[in-house]
Structures are given as structure tokens and as C-alpha cells.
Amino acid sequence: MKLVEVLQHTIWIDAIRSAEPIVLDCGANRGDFARWAVDHLGATVYAFEADPILAATLPTVPRLHPYNVAIAGEDGTMQLTRSKNRCTSACFNPQLAGTETFTVAARSLESIRQEHGLAFIDLIKLDIEGAEIEVLENISASFLAHVGQISCEFHDFLDATQRPIIRKLLQRLQQSGFVVMPISFWRYGDVLLINRRFQSVRRWDRIAIATYKYRTGIQRILSRSLSRVTRRG
Fold first, then answer.
1. Can you tell me the distance from the alpha carbon of 103 to that of 176, in angstroms, rounded to the nearest whole number?
2. Is residue 232, in this structure, part of any structural domain at all?
3. In-domain check, residue 6
């Protein structure tokens, strides 16, 4: 079993069985994850970044298709807030000096799949600054049936009131055929979802995932502690 962490997203490499996988990078930022998927998985990546400033920096390389759109529960538009101290978001809108709002086109994962004729999506990386809940609440069982795995960063570390909603949502995904594996300690910052239709999760796999979770968690805690000490010094 090969698990890797890419920008705090855990991916189960062995569960990606396609020779030329399809990856949706939702919340692509400057494209580092998308570039990793092209280089290390040989994937065709559809990269979606809502902030036009960041979207303009997405790499122009073969098999990487960049889009300046927000991922949402349905097609339309979305108002976003940009500030110096936080990532651009539709959900977290700090009232700070220098904050600006703007509107971008919004697309649902279902319409993206239909537009590009994607029969199967090997991996969805979902990191869209709090809008993950809306997207997953509105996604259909028929769409989920064509997805191999999802690596999701929820943002309950910014809003702890989201946690009961996230737990309920993960229960629904479990009922839809996914094995839910929270990797982060105490919150839902790194959740791996594996579709049982395409990848069995055995007892030994669960043990390996638990070992990985605690090892990775300790490494993250030590890294944050070291960073704080360095800043104080």
C-alpha cells in the first residue's frame, strides 16, 4: 500500500489503476498539485482556480487544462472575497482593510464531467476554502459512482461549527460506497475517500492507514512547533 502526502493531501497511489488517470484539481492555487499529478501519475488534469490572479499562474504544460472558475454545488456565479491574510473564499469573508470582493463563473462537478465526457474520474482533490460542504452536499450518487477517490480538505479549523455538518456528510458518502479515512488529528483537514466499487479496503490496509495517520500527524505537529520556534527566534 503506497500512501503519499502532496501539499497536505493524502493520496492512495495503488488505488489509481488507470494507465492514464483523470484528475480534477479543485482549488488549484498556483498549480503545484496539478503539476505533481501530471509528472508523477502521468495524469490528465483539469485544474480549477477561482481567483483570477492565481489562475493566471497555472502551468501551461501538456495534459494540464487550467480554468478560472469556482467549483460550486451548481452552475452560475459566485462572489468571492480576497484579503492579504487569507486565501480567496466565498465562505470566509473577513472585514479587513484591503479586502476586496469580485464575482466569478461557478461550475458544478457534474456539469464539468458532462462537458468533457469523462467516463471515469480517478481522483478529485477538493480544497476550495470552505465550499467543499456545498459541493459534496449537492453531488449525486450517479456522479460518485464514477469517482475512484477523493482527497478533501475541509475548513473546520476556521469554523468549528462546520464539524457536525461534515460528520453527517461523511456518513452519507459512506452510505454511497466510500470508505472514509480522516488523516488529520482532531479535525477534518485531510480526509481520504476511497470508492469500494473499485478498490477493496482490507484489514491490513486499515492498519497501514492508521499507522500512516499517526506518523504523519506527529510529523505535522513537530513541523508546526519548529516553525513557531523559528519565528520567535
1. 33
2. no
3. no
Q: Which three cell numbers stand for residue 204?
A: 491490513
pLDDT in tens, 135-159: 999 999 999 999 999 999 998 888 8
Tell me, yes or no, whether 156 lies in a domain: yes
Q: How far apart are CA 55 and CA 70, in angstroms?
A: 11
Q: For the chain, what is the domain count?
A: 1
With 0.90 as the threshold, say if the pTM is over it. Answer: no
Residue 33 pLDDT: 97
- DSSP-derived secondary structure for 163-210: HHHHHHHHHHHHHTTEEEEE-SSSS-SSEEEEETTT----HHHHHHHH
Instruction: Domain of residue 28: give its range.
Output: 17-72+108-203
Task: Report yes or no: 104 and 78 within 8 Å, Cβ to Cβ.
Answer: yes
Dump pLDDT digits (tens) for 99-124.
Answer: 788 899 999 999 999 999 999 999 99
- The CATH number of the domain holding residue 169 is 3.40.50.150
Q: Which residues 6+ apart lie within 8 Å of 125 measured at CB?
A: 9, 23, 24, 25, 26, 27, 33, 37, 150, 151, 152
Is the pLDDT assigned to residue 227 strictly greater than 70? Answer: no
